[in-house]
Amino acid sequence: MKFDGDDNAYEFYKSYAHSVGFSVKKHQIKRTKEGQVKRRTYSCSKQGKKGFDKRREHVAFERPILRVGCLARMTCQLKNDGMLEIVSFEENHNHDLAPTPMKHMLRSNRKISYAQKAIADDAEKAGLSIKKTIDLLAVQNGGREHNGFLDKDYQNYIGTKRKATMIKGDGQAIMDYFRKAQAEDPSFFYLVQLDDDDDLIMNMFWADGRSIIDYKYFGDVVCFDTTYRTNEYGRPFAPFVGVNHLKQTVIFGAALLYDETITSFKWLFEAFLTAMAGNQPKTILTDQSAAMAKAIEEVFTESHHRLCIWHIYQNAAKHLSHVFNASDQFAKDFSACVYDYEDEEEWYKGWDDMLTKYNLRNNEWLDGIFSMREKWAMVYGRHMFTADMMSTQRSESINSVLKKYLKPKHNMTYFFDHYARLVEDRRYQELLAEFKMRDTIPVLQANVEMLRQASKVYTPKVFKMFQEEFVKVLDYTIDEINKNEVRVEYKVRYAGRGTEHFVQFESSSQAVDCSCKKFEFMGILCTHALKVLDKKNIKQIPRRYILKRWTKDAKDGDLRSSVRVQGSSEKLIGKRYCNLHYNFREISTLAAENDAMYEHASEVFSNLLKDLQGMRKCSDVGTSPEELCSNHEEDHRVVAGVKTKATVGRPKGRIKGALERRKSHKVQSKPQVHFDLSFLL
């Protein structure tokens, strides 16, 4: 037999060895002056014997012996026609050959293909364990023996890949991730702040093209919060989130910060505005942080800054636990100061009465939040649009979900992959919600013109909110209290009692303005305004009071056009493999029904395989993914790594002494006081 190259000869002997039941290796080689293979010997993998090493004379454990001096081999020599011809062949072995059920375990026949590597990489990004991934591939291939590799081969591949990332360093891995993301999505924005002294990464912010588009439509209100323990550096993770027209959480961008100082926050907010073309939100909701507040004041000069009310309640339960325990009424009085008042003078009186009633005039915590009352009391924020968000719990929800995927021990590359997975999951949930919205019709509690109009323009959850306001109209009374040539003023109350709300109406423009300011801070008309429209015999919502961000067409079709998935060459190999695997499985299922179809399919497959092998020889179809990466303009900055903080005090992972463990147990065993304040919200 003759072969046109060393590789073809090796592949032939490997195929022969697999059919017989042994593994092979390339043994001896001689080359010409030009470097061409002149003579090559391929031998059984058990050729030769293990040598004696004095250094291992007293070693307690050694690997089992694999080589037993087997002489089975095949030798090829270069002929005048440029072909390698078999000149020597020894087929006898001095050891047992592998039986058929074990032939797939032979080392020279084990290999993880590019397609399988791509699938394995996707599985790791999806959070699947090594065992689950191997099981998945085994199901696809019809059993573990058809995978083409052993479990330990896959484990070694994953370990080698992770080790390569560690060798590269997290700093360079972060920059490579951002550059690759920008190559795949030209609208991807990232900004990295380096330390001036040592070129270490301090702060980083990123947002993909879809996030920037979402901000264009729903960036009127932004929630911002930080959380820890999502990466191995313990850095604060800071997502910017909002709410879309479907009342779902939408992510505008995220950051990893070095610390929570004014300088870091200011850099981050400026980076965020750069990504969003300088468009500032109407309102930004945050936790109670002095550094954050100062940075917001300097950067978001056109935005209203509101504090998270949920955190206000949590801190109240902590600092005023004795009052909550002593009186059930205190929770309601405190809630009234947060939500109920519409007039500033009445609020002052209500706050003063609460301090007197519960003897809290000298309470330090209440004095502190009183000085910030304009950022949390609704009496000061009714004119500020908050999209029905009073707290940063949407940010905290994202943080809690992300923590399910990430552990502090994970490196930065793993963090970015799983953050991207979280973002894609949220976007798919949005797609499902939009499909359901367009595929169903909401149920009307009354078949009236205004509800029919609202059901057509509003998204389901917003329509539900509007309908709840509308059906309460009949329970309210209305009295005219003032009238002139331009407007009429009404007093609206629930069943003739309770809080009075004052509504002004202009007939010329159908403008309606309620003292509760629900439209201003939520974006839908309140019951009081709807009561006045009903009295004026107005049967449809005036167009000026249909906020586009709450409508079905809020995004003008951009959602469907922006969900197209792009991928690198490596990812595309995996996608192609999955598509072909599905198609061939359908063909195989049909062909197995009778002999004629089976024979026809086998012949077609055989011819197709030969065609593809021929195409691979004369093209770059078989080029590795690393060689197929596209060239693009890159950020060529070289980073030395990721800046870390020095450990203060003893490390967290140290072993505690018996006395410390005893003290810790005593502290944890103290009874804890918990307050369920969810009913207040």
TrEMBL record:
Record key words, sorted: Metal-binding, Zinc, Zinc-finger
Q: Does the keyword Zinc-finger apply?
A: yes
Which Pfam family is an annotated match for this chain, by its short name? MULE
Domain (SWIM-type) spans: 490-537
Molecular function terms, GO-annotated: zinc ion binding
Name the domain of life this protein comes from.
Eukaryota
Q: What is this protein called?
A: SWIM-type domain-containing protein
- State the organism of origin: Linum trigynum
